[in-house]
Amino acid sequence: MSRKSLETIGYYHILEKLKECAATENAGNRIMEMVPILSETELRKQQRDTTQARAMIELAGTPPIPAMEHVEEYLQKAVRGDMLLPEQLEETGMFLSAVRRLKSYLLRGEEGRISLAYYNQNLAFPEELQEEIERCIRGGRVDDYASAYLKDIKKQIQILEEKVSERAERALKTNRQYLNDSFVVTRNGRFCIPVKKECRSMVPGSVVEQSSTGATLFIEPEAVANLREELEIYKIEEDAEERRILYTLTNMTAEREAELMEDIRVIQKLDFMFAKGKLSLEMDAVEPKINLEQYMELKGARHPMLEKESCVPLDFQIGRGIRGVIITGPNTGGKTVAIKTVALMSAMACSGLHVPCREADICMQNQILCDIGDGQNISDNLSTFSAHIKNVLDILKRVRPDSLVIMDELGSGTDPQEGMGIAISILEELRRSGALFLVTTHYPEVKEYADRYGDVQNARMEFDRDSLKPLYRLKVGEAGESCALYIAKRLGFPDKMLAAAAREAYGERSEALIQNMHLHGGSSRLEKLHAPRIEKAAVVRDSMDAVRKFTRGDSVTILPDEKIGIVVKPADKNGNVLVQLRNEKMLISHKRLRLKVAAAELYPEDYDFSIIFDTVEVRKARHKMGKHHMEGLEIEVEE
């Protein structure tokens, strides 16, 4: 059975819930190793066990299963000849008490003629051992009354300890003048009095210890020392007697090894069965009928990981002439949950578990094969479609007539036309395999595929077009629609656009849908809403542009006098233009000037403006300087 498929349908989540119902580690480990059973005899037995365990719980309540965390370890230790400690024997005694309670619990089931309860006869209860441990061990230690000899020793020790304390107090009073403190102290288990160092010779006894400063000596008085030696002898006898008692109990435990090991085995087995019964009760589940005819019928099935109150029950059947079911319907309509529920019910039933249904008749499957989820794996460098195809190929190689195959969004993740073709080819291969299969799809052509063959059937997830909410109900025998057009209409999509969409999607078949949706004469335009506008940056004009329009040689009119002048030099940074008026040059603001005739229209391109603007003297000077150097001659240039 494919572990990946079981993980996909949530099988191991169910095992985790089942493990929480177990008390012993062994049962918990066995639960996590569960897989669907291939033996019909074993499966029917496991289903009976679950049913009887639930019946016992309903009759007598929760079974008193002990945890038994270390009992087997202690038993092995006893068999080796190692002495069990008081707390270990006490835990063993608690286990035996639990066995007695469990036998009483099962006895009630025997009276109700529940077969599982007869495991009571396989449980041995060594009453003598349990009573002896209970009598001899109390509070994690050997009880004072475990034997008459131990009782006497304990009494003598108590008497001697009182005498030691009394003599120590007497020595304290007698030697008060030699002491640093007025109380008896214990050092290394011996009663001592604190004597000043310089008074050591005045107090008879043995120095047991001295203070960190050396100023005080802790001396055990002679009268106390004599009694202490006698007390130590009794304590050695006490320890020997306690060890004798512990070895006796350990040997008694080792002698019952076979019975106790059988008790452990039976309790672990019962714990496993009762865990299944507890889960059945918790899920309000029923025992499914088991068949080998490749037929499955579920009534009121609920996915066990969904809340019972909010989960819509699923009615479903397949087999008896129908090998495949193609489920269609809107997204979030529950298609994936539906096929997972069917697969999970099958896996649970074939594992000996009850299923959360009103009724169930489920066939045994040699394997459950799934392709659900995108399966994309970055490390394998696979796209969603590639992962799908890789998984589908693996399924097609493994599928047999006794298999159950579920596939979600068949053919998705690629070009719609090619994806549709691939989906139909996969369906054809599944149909020929003889396996039961459930697939979900949106392709209309895949829906039409079911109409070609009698052993393939359409089904759809119902959808409330008024509330736009999925109903999570599966209706077998009808192909579903994606409901996208209905959802779009409800949300305000214009009728004209919807009609165009319908024609693109359904071609010649679209007119019936357009009529059914009343798409004629309705809203045809989208109502435009206010939208923010982009603010363009303003064009920043150079403030000197207007100033720079006058060039050398331009004929200008000077306002407001309407005098005519010629531009000698364009405007400076302050906007003042040098203008020649007859024999006079003046700086005039560009704002008072108006272009009369541009220089380009008055003069040739290489015209020498010095003829206009220079004096006769300046022109002569330029002529002389052009021929050779003139010492002391200067030309003053207009700036």
UniProtKB/TrEMBL annotation:
UniProt KW NADP keyword: no
Residue ranges constituting the DNA mismatch repair proteins mutS family domain according to the UniProt record: 403-419
Top-level taxon: Bacteria
Any GO molecular function: endonuclease activity
Keywords: ATP-binding, DNA-binding, Endonuclease, Hydrolase, Nuclease, Nucleotide-binding
Cross-referenced Pfam families: MutS_V
UniProt-recorded name of the protein: Endonuclease MutS2
